[in-house]
Amino acid sequence: MSRIGVFICHCGENISRTVDVEQVAAQAAKMPGVAFATDYKYMCSDPGQNLVKNAIAEHRLTQVVVAACSPRMHERTFRKAVEQAGLNPFLCEMANIREHCSWVHEDREEATQKAIEIVGMLVERVKKNRVLPTITVPVTKRALVIGGGIAGIQAALDIADAGHQVVLVEREPSIGGHMAQLSETFPTLDCSQCIMTPKMVDVANHPNITLHTFSEIEQVDGYIGNFQVTVRKKARSVDEHKCTGCGVCMTKCPQKKIPNSFDCNLGMRTAIYVPFPQAVPNVPVIDRENCTMFKTGKCGVCQKVCGPGAVDFEQQDQLIVEPVGAIVVATGFELYRITEKPKGSPIKGYGEFGHGKIPDVIDGMTFERLASASGPTGGKILRPSDGKEPKQVVFIQCVGSRSREKGISYCSKVCCMYTAKHTMLYHHKVHDGQAYVFFMDARVPGKSYDEFWRRAIEDEEAVYIRGMVSRLYQKEDKIVVMGSDISVGVQVEIEADLVVLATAVQPQKGADGLAQKLGISYDKYNFYSEAHAKLRPVECATAGIYLAGACQGPKDIPDTVSQASAAAAKVMTLFAKDKLEREPIVARVKENGCVGCFACKKVCAYGAVEEKEIRDRQGNLIKTVAYVNPGVCAGCGTCQATCPSKSVELDGYTDEQIVAMIEAL
Amino acid sequence: MIQTIDISSYSAITDAIRSEARRILSDSTVSAVIGYTAGRRVGTTQPIVITTADEADKLLFSAGCLNDLVVYLTKAKKDVPKSGRIGIVVKGCDLKALVGLLGESQLKRENLYLIGIPCSGVLGSLLKPSAELTSETIASKCCECTDQLPLGCDFIPAVTPAPLPDLEKRYATEIARLEAMTPSERWEFWKEQFSKCIKCYACRQVCPFCFCEQCLCDRNRPQMVEQTPRPSGNTAWHLVRAMHLAGRCAGCGECERVCPMDIPLNLLNRKMAKELKELFNSEAGFEVRDTGPLTSYREDDDQSFIR
What we know:
The structure holds 2 protein chains of 2 kinds.
Chain A: E1 4-9, H1 21-29, E2 34-40, H2 46-58, E3 63-68, H3 71-84, E4 92-96, H4 98-102, H5 108-127, E5 135-138, E6 142-146, H6 150-161, E7 165-169, E8 184-185, E9 190-191, H7 192-205, E10 209-212, E11 215-223, E12 226-233, H8 248-252, E13 258-259, E14 268-269, E15 272-273, E16 285-286, H9 292-296, H10 301-305, E17 318-324, E18 326-329, E19 333-335, E20 361-363, H11 364-371, E21 392-399, H12 415-429, E22 434-439, H13 449-458, E23 463-466, E24 469-475, E25 478-485, E26 490-496, E27 498-503, E28 505-507, H14 511-518, E29 545-547, H15 557-575, E30 579-582, E31 587-589, H16 599-603, E32 609-615, E33 621-628, H17 638-642, E34 648-650, H18 655-664
Parallel strand pairs in A: 1-2, 1-3, 3-4, 6-7, 6-18, 7-10, 18-29, 20-27, 21-22, 21-27, 22-23
Antiparallel strand pairs in A: 5-30, 8-9, 11-12, 12-17, 13-14, 15-16, 19-28, 24-25, 25-26, 31-34, 32-33
Chain B: H1 10-26, E1 32-38, E2 45-50, H2 71-74, E3 86-90, H3 92-103, E4 112-116, H4 140-143, H5 170-179, H6 183-195, H7 202-206, H8 231-245, H9 254-258, H10 265-280
Parallel strand pairs in B: 1-3, 3-4
Antiparallel strand pairs in B: 1-2
């Protein structure tokens, strides 16, 4: 006979404002099987939890229903409390009378009635709950970091320094990411390369880090503590072990006029190339699309001049399976290309700004390359069209960002600061030049950030104009920028030599595809979603996968590095244990009903279903049935829904429990 | 106008089945052959399992060979030996069911010896067993048959079936009529049909795909479907049946044939098949499929039905 305790939470006023909690408690007390019912202001607080624990002892409760918020919020909290009081945690259920009731209703009487019915359903359900034992699985203490930008580098170094093996996978031929492209960094104006490249070298030299550059994630199998990740190491056409990085191949390559994407296509590179001189690893890669050898079958100069014989035209893509226990996703961002209107996307493009048509309208990253000492101009600000030094430069902020009509409603966060930085860099290099900035408002919170922005205006003489640009067009060798200054209410027209657009920060192309391989969720812009915006900001909802950097949302370098270290700390917490405890919410096959059609095996996204032979004592095969590996099962319930004979049960969500809930209504 | 259907090839087919059955039984290729033999009333047939070459002459093929024998491989296997390779006589429609069972791990191809029938059609019912096969008496499924010649069999009599005359596609006509109805009219139609059901479960017994050892409709903890033959339980049963067959049904039409209350069960199955064909370009055929349309997911699946 059940002795169920029902605990109704006021949630401050969140629930009690709309639901008569005392009446719910009074009605719950009358429900069959209920031995005790009460209400309390904050059930999740320490006294609230103690109330539950004491009631279990005092009233000899066998099951517990907590009527409060969503189980996503506090199921763990109460199951832990119930466990401390000596009950199996899975004999505790949450009745969601907040999100499902008080928050969405106004009529107090009806809401109270609905709350009573929700509690009634959970009371019937909890009667059918079974004691579930915790499942333990081993942990592979080896981490995968996806993305070799500053986020990935920081996370990899932190985990490796803690003594764990790390596999770092980077799509490009070198690690470094966008930070390696930057000239100087705000708010201190130290050289990006100077602080970045030593970290890149640390990665290359770290005994605990395995680096796969020019590689992509092909497939991800497994689960927290036990992932199997297949990495596609793309054919580099150069043997990494033989190459000494002497660079003779690059000097001899006849294909010298290929735009270098690292320099935002301002500079040229050869077909066999390293993206930039400080690349890690310092091993060139052959761009097969532009290589004469691959296009015509004749050339092979690089192979002839290579002393160690590292050039290998026959090299194939390699698939490497890496067993890891945790994954840090740090795939970063790319800048919004305003000329593009991606098909099926709400993003509408900015044709009126002439980007891509007028050569002297560039984006922020291109300006970084112009200002960089290692850039195509050697750090001189020269405009792309004719190589002249621009005397009037217009910076336009919020291009793409914060524009609901254009499809991106978020703030890209870094543009206010980097535009202020750009005006300073420009002023340092072109003393007689003038920088103008069109801006909506300056968003510069952060340590020393506001001071930095004010310095740009007060000491470095940038003219900030509050307002947006309506149109710009080429007039002889000038670009006429037409905008408004809303602070004084006049139209402004500036004849600029160069226009720099602070375009929006977006997730990398293909971010959604990677998310699908990893089984993590992402928002409508393809930024990856954290498990909880405030309390679990670096974890994904998928256990064992963590986020670092701008793949989650626009971030500057300090925030990215902090988050990368936070993700590393989470991985180390996971690796501190030898065995992991898993929720026993897994599917179970009822073998007497199973006919072995294996529809469950076909639909299982986790590869958790295996075939199992049932034999009699003489060893004769009776039948082959499905078997769910509880270590692999994620408890999604797809097999349960698919099984034609209803021979799969999801523990914690059995048909009996669900039907009991329906019948209680 | 009533058209006669040419089934002159059936005697040659009978001879070929007999000699092939004799051969594979005498050289122990198979331990048994499942086929048709003459029934007690003239013109009727009944399934038979033969295990010796001497019995081969009992086999025959005629317009009265209605049964889908595939069901004998999975559940009605009283006389079928448990081990060894089994020979079975299959028409095109039967073979599609067999292929479906191969895809659902219920049968193994290497354990089977398939004797295919170049079929010109069978009778719709054996109420008048000696009736001539005409455009009136032919089974509805045969009117829409596109697979007279089964593919992938181990043996097929060297007979080319006479092409069927242009017959009225009865299911297609009826589906078009139902589709033209309003949803409430259609619901009335099916409610009327399901109300006739006496829950004898003959449709379940005869269906090759109803191979569950314990049907979910028989379960009582929890009870999923009301078991008494009342309208709500009847409707639930037929909807569960239709949904479980969606993407699997091979169209042998046995459910409709055995229904004592004349519920147009295959009409429901054909409608489901039509939907699956339109949504996922998937239909029963002679090639074993690893996954069915409803047990696989592709990103480019048609989502338009979600409204």
